[in-house]
Amino acid sequence: MTCRIKTLPDNLINKIAAGEVVERPASVVKELIENSIDAEATHVTVEIEKGGTKLVKITDDGIGMTSEEAELAVTRHATSKIASVDDLFAISTLGFRGEALPSIASVSMFTLTTRRRDSTEGVRIVIDGGNTKSSGPSGSPPGTVVDVKELFFNLPARRKFLKSLTTETRQVIQTVTSLSLAHPSIGFRLDADGRNIFDYSPATSTAQRVSDVYGENLSSRFLSFEKDAGPIKVIGFISKPDDARRHRMEARFFVNHRPVSSRLIHAAVMSAFGELLPKGCYPQGAVFIEIAPDLVDVNVSPSKSEVRFKDERSVYHVVYHTVSEAVSKSDVIPEIPQNAEDTGSAEYIERARTAVESFIRSHEIKPENRAQSSLPLHTKPEINTSIDPPLPSANVTGQQHLNHESGSMAQSHAVRQSVSPVRPYRLVGFSDLYIVALSAEAIFIIDQHAAHERILYEKALASFGRSQIVAQKLLFPVNVELDATLFQAAEATMEHFESLGFEIKPFGRNSVAIYAVPAVARNANPEKVFRNILDDVSGFESEGEDINKKMAQSFACRAAIKSGNRLTEDEMSGLVEDLFLCSNPYVCPHGRPTLIKLSKSELEKRFGR
Hints:
Blueprint: H1 10-21, H2 25-38, E1 43-49, E2 55-60, H3 67-73, H4 85-88, H5 97-105, E3 109-115, E4 122-128, E5 131-138, E6 143-149, H6 156-160, H7 165-182, E7 187-192, E8 195-200, H8 206-214, H9 216-219, E9 223-229, E10 232-238, E11 251-255, E12 258-260, H10 263-273, E13 285-291, E14 296-297, E15 308-309, H11 312-327, H12 346-365, E16 385-386, H13 398-405, H14 409-417, E17 423-424, E18 426-430, E19 434-438, E20 442-447, H15 448-463, E21 471-481, H16 484-492, H17 494-499, E22 503-506, E23 511-518, H18 526-538, H19 545-559, H20 569-579, E24 595-599, H21 600-606
Parallel strand pairs: 1-7, 11-13
Antiparallel strand pairs: 1-2, 2-6, 3-4, 3-6, 4-5, 7-8, 9-10, 10-13, 11-12, 14-15, 16-17, 18-19, 19-20, 20-24, 21-23, 22-23
C-alpha cells in the first residue's frame, strides 16, 4: 500500500513538538520558570501535586503580557526571544515562550492568566489538550500564572513511562534548585503536595544562594574560586575531597546562567581533583561559566540542557587550571573539628553534665549496651573452634561466587549442618586486612571487610520493620543540613534508618538531628555515615523490597570494619563465627568473595608432592 504525503494537523504537530521539550513534569517546570526569568520576575513560586502529574503551577511577578501577546504565546512559531537566524547562534535568553506554551498546552489541561504591570486588566486563556476552550478578560495581579493539570492525560502511553511519584518529585526539586542557583537574585519557593520544600529569598550574591541550597555547615567548607580569562570567566564553590559524594547530580554546572550538562566541564573538574577524590566519588557544589553567547551553542538538544563550545580547548584549560589551583591549597586536608571556644562556659558545662547523666541512665536501663565489642553483632561465647565448611577454592571465579547468592537461606543452612565435625584452628591477622585461619587440612584466608559486610548486610535485611540492630546514643545530637533533594530522600527512608539503629528526627526545614547511631558504627563520624548511606540510596528509582536491599548494602559497606583496622584474636574469632552463621557466608553483598580456601591437597600439588 502506497502512503500519500500529507500535511499534519496542528494538534498532532503540537503533540510531536511536546515530545521534544516535555519529557516529564520537571521539563514543564523548567520551561515555565525560564519564561518567568526572561519576563524579569523577582519572585517565582512553584506548586506541584503528585510529582507534577496532577498539577504544575508557576506564579511569577514578571512584566506579564497583553491579551494580544498572550494569544500569540500559545500559538506555534511565535516568540519574543529571536527575530533573525543570527539570533539563534547568540542566544542570551532562556525559554522560547511561544514554543513551550503550545507544546505543554497540547498535552494537558492548561490555563494561562497574565497581566502587564502597566495594565488594569488581565487575560485568561483555557486550553484542554490543544483545543482552546475560552479566552477573555480576567482580574489578576501583575505577572503570569500558568496552571498545568493532568499532564499527558491524552497521551496514556507517555504517562505510563513516567517514574514513581517520589522520583518525579525529586526531579522537580532538582530542576528548581538548579535554576535558583543560576539566578540568585530571584526568590524561589517550591511547594509539593501542600508542603513547603524551600523558600529562598532573593540573594545578594551567588555565595549566599549556594549557602541556601547546600546548607551553611557544608557550604562553609566549600572551596571558592574565581578566574577572569578574557572571554571566559569561571566562578565556583566546590567541596573538598572529604565531602565527596557517590552521585554526580550534586555537582552542578552553569553556562551564562543556564543549568547545563557538559562532559567537558565535568572532565576538567575531575581531572583537576585527580587522585584526591576517593574512587567512584564526585565533588559537590556549583561551577559557573560566563562566556560570550556567540562562543557557545545551546541548541545541541531541544531542552537546551547540553552545550557545545566553539573553542573547547580554551574552556577546558581555564576550568581545569582554576579548579586545580583551588584544590592544591593546604586547606583541602581533612581536619578534626575543634569546638574549644565554648568549652569553658558555664552553659557548656551544664549541658555536658546533663547529657552525661542522661547517657548513664539510658545505659543502666540497657546493661547489654555497656560493653559493646568492636563487632557487637557477635553474641555467641568466644570459642577456639569453628566449622570447617566446604569453601570456594583459591581459583574460583567471582561469577561462581555470585552463583552462591541465588541459593536459598534454607539450602545454605542445610550445607552448614551437613559439614564434617568441628576442627581446631588458629587465627592470624595479616596486613590488617585479612584473617588467616589455619586448620589441619586447609588454610582459609578471610577478607575482614567483606566478611563483616556480609554479616551486617544480613543483619540489616532482617532488621527492617523489627529494629533489631543495637543503637548507640550520642552524647550530643548532631545536626545535619541537607539540600532539598536529599531531605526528601531522608524523609522517604526515615523508617529504614531507624531499623538500622539510627535515631533521626526532622530539625527545621531541610535539616535533621541524629540522636543515635548503630553501635557497630559508633566510632565513625555520625554525619558522614548518615550522608554516605543517604547518598547511596537517594538516586534509587525502585520502591518496596529492592530499597531494603540497597539500604542494607550501603549500611553494610559504610559500617563494616575497614582495611587497616587491627583486630584482636577474640574479635577475629567472633567475626569468623558470625560469618558462618550467615545464610550465605561466601560473598559480600556486592558479590566479592569473603574468603578463599587453600586445601592441603592443593598445596601438595603445587609443591610437586
